[in-house]
Amino acid sequence: MEMKKMSVRRGDKVVVLSGKDKGKKGKVIATFPRLGKLKVEGINMIKKHAKPTRKVPQGGIREMEAAFPASKVMVICPSCGKPTRVAKKALADDIMVRTCRKCGEALDK
Q1: Domain of residue 105, residue span
Q2: I need a surface site. Which of 25, 35, 60, 73 has the fewest CB within 10 A?
Q3: Model-level pTM greater than 0.70?
Q4: Tell me: the pLDDT tens digits for 2-40?
C-alpha cells in the first residue's frame, strides 16, 4: 500500500465538508496516511459492542469515533479562524512549513 500525502495532522482543528456531520468542527485525534483517513473528536460516532474483559469488567456498548476520508475535511486556520486549504512554504533554512492560503500565517507552531 502506498502512503498518501496528507495536509492534515494530529491536533489540527478541522471542519467537515460533506456527509452526515457536514459543518461540524473538531480536533483531529489520529491520522492513517496509508489509508488516507483520519479520526476527528466527536465526529462520525459509531457504537461498538465490547465483551467484558479484565480491563473493562462491565463490557457493554461503547461509543467511539470511526475513521473517514481526509479529503472530507478542511483545516481551520488558528490565526484567521477560517477553513482553508494548506500551502507549503520554505523557510530560509530549507524547512517546509504548512501555511494558510487566506492569511499566509503558518499553521505549524
Answers
A1: 77-109
A2: 60
A3: yes
A4: 777 889 999 999 999 999 999 999 999 999 999 999 999
